[in-house]
Specification:
One of its GO terms (biological process) is regulation of nitrogen utilization. By secondary structure, the chain is of the alpha+beta class. The protein has 40 helices and 16 strands. It folds into 5 domains: about 200 residues, Beta Polymerase, domain 2 (2-Layer Sandwich), CATH 3.30.460; about 150 residues, Nucleotidyltransferases  domain 2 (Four Helix Bundle (Hemerythrin (Met), subunit A)); about 110 residues, Hydrophobic Seed Protein (Orthogonal Bundle), CATH 1.10.110.30; about 100 residues, Alpha-Beta Plaits (2-Layer Sandwich); about 110 residues, Alpha-Beta Plaits, CATH 3.30.70.260. The strands form 3 sheets. An 8-stranded antiparallel beta sheet has the order 9-10-12-11-15-16-14-13, sandwiched between helices. Strands 3-2-1-4 form a 4-stranded mixed beta sheet. Strands 5-6-7-8 form a 4-stranded mixed beta sheet. α12 crosses α13, α26 packs antiparallel against α27 and α39 runs antiparallel to α40. The radius of gyration is 33 Å and the shape is globular.
């Protein structure tokens, strides 16, 4: 709670309280005797004043770029509105000429409003404090204020309690306790508020600090579990996410409660923060408030998620500009993530101070490496007397350990990893303050580099140790190229994390692959066992470096290979090993691209890929690298389809690289896949099972994972038993966040186009497809759609509408061009991105077909438009491969002319390219027209 000198009412710069009071007086005269009309008029007047005040606050925020000041202005305006309402209600509506002792009231701001800071869309939390029980006068005053605030469109939380009730409920409920902790006197009876303050400090706070701290930290952990444990997700929650405003609030709540302070500045006097850390706290707070206020102004609602569609506008409002290799929005988001990291540092600092104060138990600090069990006592590590073990956490033995020997800045992480130790916050605080000792000499120091090599290639805890190195700033200082990607986001919908977080997560995935504990990694689990120890080391280093050149003007794969050639000799790699790392980095996207967007049954595809890879060892490394890279992109990105595609590509390429020899040749792999399928389908009669197996071509058995094979079999059996050749089925893939539609229908050239058109007509967006034909002329298509609803019941109803439309379209009951034209429109989230389209017409990728590769910005209806245009160009689509990487679509079509020949004429190839590129131009023109019409 605020001290008396802080409870003085601030003067609002954006709201004239005296003029408002005069207007309310005039309205009272105008509507004399018509109380209902008067209340409405007052609410409408104040609503208009509130809107004008917010406009002024927004203008000042754009001019000054000071978020906390904006929040203070908005709060001061709200204070004045409530004061005007209280005076109006108590003097004009319900005057009490001779008030009794019970007719006293103190209006108190609580929660966020109690802090004296409000965002444009923040809730207003009020506490009406009474001396005893509620009276008719007090009830009337409170209702008059609340109804007016509600009529103004504000979201108001309120409670009416006596002082005794406040104290009793604060003891029992931690949320109420926190709300009263931040209470701030607004208007009414000051003595009542002072009584509440004194009794709260004496009866509730005193002697309960440990209980409060434990509750607030547990509450934080629960919140982060719900919003996401990483502070490096690319669409963060500014209020409740890790490193957001709520974390700063929690810090202040704890500091206020434990140290009995009223301001953050007072924490310096208690030795919790030093002056630099205080400045960091204030900078973080001001920046986060700037972002939050802008978000509310831009969206005109209490939006707390910094989503892609508003990130760039916020960046421009905050004054960020584009630099070579980094867009304005990426520079803004980098600042955001660095701020979130600083909030995390402040949290660790406060926790260390609390532990020293015996307010917080030591074991709770080991959450960074949660599996460790604390062992009591302190001991010196045998490898170095510069470090001690304190309750199973590594700490510095003396204050000068890093200054005296800078190698200790790397050694501390090596020793923690080797001995399964968590990190003491004091040691991390000292390491962060010692980054100036990481210079060229240390980067070239053989011992330091050897220790870092051991950290990267260790069998245990690589990911958490690297993350702590990164959060302390040591990793980016020691590997300067890594420092350039710290907190760097990629402004796209494919990557879920910042670049540095992605690289660190890759190290965790490769550890899982090597352990072989997760079956979802498929072939990678098998191949890693065949690698030599040195090859595993090379793979670790490659994963750590593969995206390290993101954010540069040139292609990050090429620039990354150059970084590797400079960095790998530092770690002791010879020339051949260094070149292997460089080659893997330069080609780390090749296998993923070919697996997902090429026909793997086409011999030319395999020959071209083998020409790039050139050796079986490289192929093995590339499979594992690709698996870890995709898996670490984010939840749901890696799936069984992709695992199966990589497996197929590997086994198709292996005999080409070995001169015909293969550990498992194609026929054998088909037989193995069919045997695996038979094992799963034991309940089928043998003759029916063999008949079903014969209806699929070899490519189907090699490319489809077992769960989908089983689902397809049951679906097709049900369809055929009903005497149908056209049917649809719906499944939900929770891991990927997509809805899968499986369609069985007679095969014909425009089948994919019709299915895509039906999806577009219902507003569904296709993000992936798997297309196969049976030996008896049926097509089996599995289409993955972006999920729209969180609840399966709602999504199932939507999917039923889509499948119904597909079946009607395939029967010719719907005119698709008109239906698509009425419905298809760019998704709001896609509008935030700009992506130059490209069409490649290539005759070198296949011996039999011309391959058309289309890349560009995804939108509902795009696949339909592409396939319909290709058909209008008198081309026959024999194979299509649809892949979506966030907002970027890569659609590949294997085509011939109507006579089954390749498209060899340069003139015709140019016409195809122009026609397909025009689809993107028309979409951009339509969007411009829509925006113009709205404005």
């Amino acid at each position: 709670m605020l001290s008396p000198d802080q409870t003085m009412r601030p003067t609002s710069e954006i709201f004239d309280a005296e003029a408002a009071a005069h207007e309310l007086h005039a309205l009272a005269a105008t509507y004399s005797g018509r109380e209902s009309d008067l209340r409405t008029a007052v609410a409408q007047f104040l609503k208009g004043e509130l809107a004008r005040g917010r406009e002024k606050a927004e203008q000042l925020l754009l001019k000054e770029r000071h978020g906390r000041r904006c929040a203070e202005r908005l709060c001061a305006m709200q204070d004045e509105i409530i004061r005007v309402l209280f005076d109006f209600a108590s003097k004009r509506l319900y005057p009490s000429l001779n008030p009794s002792e019970g007719e006293r009231m103190s209006i108190v701001a609580t929660g966020g409003y109690g802090r004296g800071l409000l965002a444009p869309g923040s809730d207003i939390d009020l506490l009406f404090v009474l001396p005893y029980k509620q009276t008719a006068w007090g009830e009337s005053i409170a209702e008059a204020i609340l109804y007016c605030l509600w009529d103004m469109g504000l979201k108001v939380g309120h409670a009416t309690r006596s002082v005794d009730e406040c104290i009793r409920q604060a003891k029992a409920d931690m949320t109420i306790r926190t709300a009263i902790l931040e209470s701030r006197f607004l208007y009414g009876d000051q003595a009542l508020f002072d009584e509440l303050v004194n009794r709260f400090d004496r009866d509730v706070v005193q002697g309960t600090a440990a209980e409060f701290v434990a509750a607030k930290l547990a509450e934080r952990e629960d919140r982060l579990r719900r919003t996401g444990q990483s502070r490096y997700v690319v669409e963060p929650n500014v209020k409740d996410g890790k490193g957001g405003l709520r974390d700063l609030h929690t810090l202040f709540w704890i500091g206020k409660y434990v140290y009995r302070v009223r301001t953050v500045e007072e924490l310096v006097d208690h030795g919790v923060f030093d002056q630099d850390e205080l400045k960091m706290f204030l900078r973080c707070e001001d920046f986060l408030w700037s972002v939050r206020c802008h978000m509310h102004f831009v969206t005109n609602r209490p939006e707390e998620r910094l989503s892609f569609d508003i990130q760039r506008e916020i960046a421009v409002r905050l004054g960020y500009t584009e630099h070579p290799g980094m867009r304005d929005v990426e520079r803004f988001m980098k600042h955001y993530f660095l701020t979130a990291k600083n909030v995390g540092d402040l949290t660790a600092i406060l926790c260390a101070a609390l532990e020293a104060n015996h307010t917080k138990s030591a074991p709770a600090l080991g959450r960074m490496i949660a599996r460790f069990r604390p062992r009591a006592g302190r001991r010196i590590l045998s490898e170095s007397d510069d470090f001690i073990v304190d309750n199973n956490r590594i700490n510095i033995a003396k204050q000068d350990v890093f200054e005296r020997d800078p190698v200790n800045l790397i050694r501390i992480f090596y020793l923690a990893q080797k001995h399964d130790l968590a990190f003491h916050p004091d040691a991390m605080r000292k390491a962060t303050r010692s980054l100036n000792f990481i210079n060229k000499d240390l980067r070239e120091n053989p011992e330091a580099n050897e220790l870092f090599f051991e950290i990267l290639t260790a069998k245990n805890d690589v990911e958490p140790v690297l993350r702590r190195m990164n959060e302390a700033g040591v990793l980016g200082a020691f590997v300067r190229a890594f420092g350039r990607v710290v907190a760097m986001m990629q402004f796209n919908m494919y990557h879920h994390y910042t670049v540095d977080e992605h690289l660190i997560r890759c190290m965790g995935v490769i550890s899982e692959i090597e352990a072989g504990t997760n079956e979802e990694y498929g072939l990678a689990n098998e191949l890693v066992k065949k690698l030599q120890p040195r090859q595993r080391d090379i793979l670790r280093i490659t994963l750590f470096l593969h995206d390290i050149a993101k954010g540069r003007v040139e292609d990050h794969s090429i620039a990354g290979a150059r970084v590797a050639r400079r960095f790998c000799p530092r770690l002791g790699l010879n020339n051949a090993e260094t070149e292997t790392v460089a080659w893997l980095i330069e080609n780390h996207l090749v296998m993923s691209t070919i697996a997902q967007s090429r026909d793997l049954s086409d011999r030319k595809t395999i020959e071209n890929f083998a020409g790039i890879v050139q050796s079986l060892d490289r192929l093995k490394l590339l499979v594992i690298l690709t698996t870890a890279d995709i898996r670490a992109v984010g939840p749901g990105v890696w799936n069984g389809w992709k695992a199966q595609l990589l497996r197929t590509l590997y086994y198709e390429t292996e005999p080409v690289l070995t001169g015909g020899f293969s550990e498992v040749n194609r026929e054998r792999r088909v037989a193995m896949a069919q045997a695996e399928f038979r094992q799963e389908m034991k309940d089928w009669p043998e003759d029916e099972l063999e008949s079903y197996i014969a209806r699929h071509y070899p490519a189907y058995w090699l490319k489809v994972d077992l769960p989908h094979k089983v689902a397809h079999a049951n679906f097709l059996r049900k369809t055929w038993s009903a005497g149908r050749t056209l049917a649809t089925q719906v499944n939900f893939d929770a891991a990927r966040g997509v809805t899968e539609l499986t369609v069985i229908a007679p095969d014909h050239p425009r089948l994919l186009s019709i299915i895509a058109g039906a999806c577009a007509a219902t507003g569904a967006n296709i993000v992936d497809s798997q297309i196969y034909t049976t030996t008896d002329g049926l097509a089996l298509d599995t289409i993955s759609l972006t999920r729209e609803f969180e609840r399966d019941e709602d999504e199932d109803r939507r999917a039923s509408r889509i499948t119904d439309t597909i079946e009607k379209a395939l029967k010719g009951e719907i005119k698709l061009p008109e239906a698509v034209a009425r419905r298809a429109a760019p998704k709001a989230r896609f509008k935030a991105f700009a992506l130059d389209p490209d069409v490649n017409v290539n005759n070198e990728w296949s011996n039999r077909y011309t391959v058309i590769e289309v890349t560009g910005l995804d939108r509902p209806g795009l696949l339909y438009e592409l396939t319909a245009t290709i058909s209008k160009l008198s081309l026959n689509i024999t194979s299509a491969h649809v892949a979506t990487f966030g907002e970027r679509v890569v659609d590949v079509f294997y085509v011939t002319d109507l006579l089954g020949a390749k498209i060899g004429s340069p003139t015709r190839q140019a016409a195809i390219k122009r026609a397909l590129l025009a689809l993107f131009s028309r979409a951009a023109t339509e969007e411009t027209k829509q925006l113009a019409a709205k404005s």
